[in-house]
């Protein structure tokens, strides 16, 4: 039997000295097992054809977990099949996703922002006008009634900009239209908005409720002084107070607000101060069920964040900073919970999932980003780049080759990824990063922190089983 077997290429051997075991994790099968430390150490040194050194019961156990496989299996060929299936599932998505930028203008002048065309020529722009809205309505109706891809069972809208709340009338009218269509054709509906929150007064919260826009993303870039240095109005006045007051107006039910922090190394240093200000204002942690964070590290080689490498993150630092942010958030939360006699939270790591390989937004035949001039884009990060326009809504019939531009990516053919031992579970799946500039890709956290995370997951399970046995 043994001559026909080999070790999987995707094994990871993780010594866990404190418990005297080796953890073996396989990213192809997504299984983990533990084994005696000495035996694990030996296996970790073997080359793939040397399993005859192992006891048969260990070979059997490793076979069950996909760590020892038949010599005939080419795991990479199987991974290519998974990637291609994933692409097909995304292409055939039954969700009509519209990311709509009703204007690329903004009432703020944040210097780092890629949104809004800041050149003098285009400064006086630009609103999605009535003709464009009518064209967009036609696209929705046509897609629902005569889908060129899969039959639609859900419509999802994301309002984006510029500052989308500069165009509340467009948001109201178009949302009413889509909500009616969903009722008529029995489709699910959901909506979200990315806003700077400066216009989010009490009436606007009511408008969002009427339009069923319940997921809100607001950017706050660190503690007050730091935020005000980079997020200010045209008159130079900082926006922090204004935003905080509007966030406080959020109704107690229905909404979920994500505070996005565009983080660099300097912003990170001010996070504890931001947390304590949020607490003093009664925003967080007390409203933890309704308010969360998205730490969005600025990656130095992506879309213009290229210059100041000292403060922007590399791929490794990017993943590390996410981890550090999470630790900081939980430590702050737990100190507060202690004080308030509430339950503590533990830092828990999710077990890996199989990779999607690609971005659903650009892969789906039913996903469109619409800029302020009524032009279609596939990736919502390009809606403020006029040179990335694919075609106007009026010309759309689903056949423009530009719609497939970002689908040129075959991740399994990228040099680094082909040989990467975490390719089957890599959750960094942005087509645009790879297609625009292969160097701008971010690698998955599993590439950098496999050992630390797997040991933490093992410990979580171990502690739970100990508790259950008591
Ligand atoms: S930026 Fe990347 S992940 Fe986001 S929509 Fe574009 S391709 Fe998809
Ligand atoms: S971790 Fe990096 S090299 Fe590996 S598959 Fe993901 S993107 Fe590619």
Describe it for me?
This protein has 470 residues and is an alpha/beta fold. The protein folds into two domains: 2-73; 74-470, Aldolase class I (TIM Barrel). Helix content is 37%, strand content 16%. It is built from 15 helices and 14 strands. The strands form three sheets. The protein has a nine-stranded mixed beta sheet with strand order 11-10-9-8-7-6-12-13-14. A three-stranded antiparallel beta sheet has the order 2-3-4, with helices on both faces. Strands 1-5 form a two-stranded antiparallel sheet. The longest helix has 25 residues, at 315-339. The chain starts with a strand and ends with a helix. The relative contact order is 0.12. The model is unreliable at 118-124 (pLDDT under 50). It binds iron/sulfur cluster (2 copies). One iron/sulfur cluster binds at residues 416-417, 420, 422-423, 426, 428, 441, 443-444, 447. One iron/sulfur cluster binds at residues 359, 361-362, 379-381, 406, 430-432.
């Amino acid at each position: 039997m043994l001559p026909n077997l080999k070790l999987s290429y995707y094994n990871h051997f993780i010594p866990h000295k404190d418990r005297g075991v080796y953890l073996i994790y396989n990213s192809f099968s997504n299984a983990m097992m533990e084994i005696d430390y000495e035996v694990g150490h030996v296996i970790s040194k073997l080359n793939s054809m040397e399993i005859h050194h192992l006891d048969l019961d260990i070979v059997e156990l490793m076979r069950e977990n996909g760590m020892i496989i038949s010599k005939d299996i080419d795991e990479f060929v199987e991974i290519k099949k998974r990637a291609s299936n994933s692409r097909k599932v995304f292409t055939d998505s039954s969700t009509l996703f519209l990311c709509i930028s009703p204007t690329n203008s903004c009432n703020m002048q944040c210097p780092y922002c890629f949104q809004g065309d800041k050149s003098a020529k285009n400064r006086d722009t630009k609103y999605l006008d009535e003709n464009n809205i009518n064209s967009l309505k036609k696209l929705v109706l046509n897609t629902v009634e005569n889908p060129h891809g899969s039959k639609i069972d859900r419509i999802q809208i994301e309002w984006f900009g510029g500052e989308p709340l500069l165009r509340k009338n467009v948001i109201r009218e178009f949302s009413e239209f889509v909500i009616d269509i969903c009722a008529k054709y029995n489709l699910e509906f959901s909506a979200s908005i990315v806003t700077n929150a400066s216009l989010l007064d009490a009436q606007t919260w009511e408008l969002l409720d009427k339009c069923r826009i319940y997921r809100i993303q607001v950017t706050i870039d660190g503690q007050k002084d730091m935020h005000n240095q980079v997020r200010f109005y045209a008159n130079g006045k900082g926006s922090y107070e204004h935003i905080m007051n509007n966030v406080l107006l959020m109704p107690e039910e229905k909404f979920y607000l994500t505070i996005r922090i565009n983080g660099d190394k300097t912003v990170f240093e001010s996070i504890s101060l931001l947390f304590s200000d949020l607490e003093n204002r009664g925003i967080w942690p007390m409203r933890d069920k309704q308010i969360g964070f998205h730490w969005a590290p600025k990656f130095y080689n992506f879309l213009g964040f290229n210059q100041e490498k000292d403060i922007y993150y590399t791929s490794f630092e990017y993943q590390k900073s996410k981890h550090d942010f999470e630790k900081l958030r939980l430590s702050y939360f737990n100190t507060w919970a202690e004080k308030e006699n509430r339950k503590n939270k533990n830092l828990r790591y999710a077990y890996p999932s199989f990779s999607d390989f690609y971005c659903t937004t650009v892969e789906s035949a039913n996903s469109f980003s619409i800029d302020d001039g009524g032009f279609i884009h596939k990736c919502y990060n390009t809606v403020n780049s006029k040179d990335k326009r694919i075609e106007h809504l009026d010309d759309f019939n689903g056949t423009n080759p530009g719609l497939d531009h970002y689908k040129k990516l075959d991740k399994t053919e990228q040099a680094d990824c082909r040989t990467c031992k975490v390719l089957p579970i890599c959750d960094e799946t942005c087509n645009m990063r790879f297609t625009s500039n292969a160097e701008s890709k971010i690698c998955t956290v599993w590439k950098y922190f496999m050992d630390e995370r797997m040991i933490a997951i093992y410990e979580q399970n171990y502690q739970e089983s100990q508790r259950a046995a008591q």
